[in-house]
Design goal:
Oligomer: single chain
Order of helices and strands: EEHHHEEHHEEEHH
Number of strands: 7
Strand order of the largest sheet: 5-7-6
Radius of gyration: 18 Å
Helix content: 55-70%
Structural class: mainly alpha
Distance between the termini: 14 Å
Shape: globular
């Protein structure tokens, strides 16, 4: 039977490791401790579960149907990034259930918030377009392994462009670059922003069963 210490949260870091670090992470406290938390907990979870698999597919791809797998992982990553920024955990609602504090049961709003508010995606997405992307790309890929609502996935597009809103094209490599830009921005924000720090603690507490 596994114990709490056996649960790996981020690379080699276990739930026991987090319980040691957590009391030292004071919102508004020492930046070096927050930078270490970002480096030791956020980045390994991000790279090992999302970014490394995407990179592997990109390096061995042929610009054919692997774009579906890449964008499906990117869509899962968006939910992780935004739920971490807000400090939320997913709760599947059964009949009679109610959401607790900092819980969500529908990823649509998280998706729309991320694409229409977070830079650099907000340069290309309105809330309406983000909702259309959620329905046609995210839900299409997750549920049916295809895009819907006329969305298409291409490998690359003009520099700095993640989508073509008129032709409804997702440039998956450009999208990946934009995700990495957001991660850099999030790191800088986490070191100084108290609400982000509070949300970070809530999110990583969730990974301790």
């Amino acid at each position: 039977m596994s114990t709490l210490g056996d649960v790996h949260m981020a690379g080699s870091k276990t739930a026991d490791d987090w319980q040691v670090v957590r009391p030292k992470l004071v919102p508004g406290g020492e930046q070096s401790l927050w930078e270490e938390a970002f480096r030791s907990y956020f980045l390994p979870r991000l790279w090992l579960r999302y970014l490394d698999p995407i990179k592997l597919i990109q390096e061995h791809g042929t610009f054919q149907v692997e774009g579906f797998s890449i964008v499906a992982i990117q869509c899962s990553l968006i939910e992780f990034l935004e739920s971490t920024a807000q400090g939320l955990s997913y709760h599947y609602l059964r009949r009679g259930d109610r959401l607790g504090p900092y819980e969500y049961s529908n990823s649509s709003k998280l998706f729309v918030d991320f694409l229409s508010v977070r830079r650099p995606f907000a340069n290309d997405f309105s809330r309406q377009l983000a909702q259309d992307f959620y329905e046609g790309v995210r839900c299409g890929l997750i549920h049916e392994a295809r895009t819907k609502k006329s969305w298409k996935i291409w490998g690359q597009g003009p520099s700095g462009t993640v989508i073509d809103a008129v032709r409804k094209i997702v440039y998956r490599d450009n999208f990946q670059t934009a995700l990495l830009e957001f991660v850099d921005w999030y790191k800088r924000s986490l070191l100084a922003d108290v609400p982000f720090q509070e949300a970070f603690i809530r999110k990583f507490d969730i990974f301790c069963p």
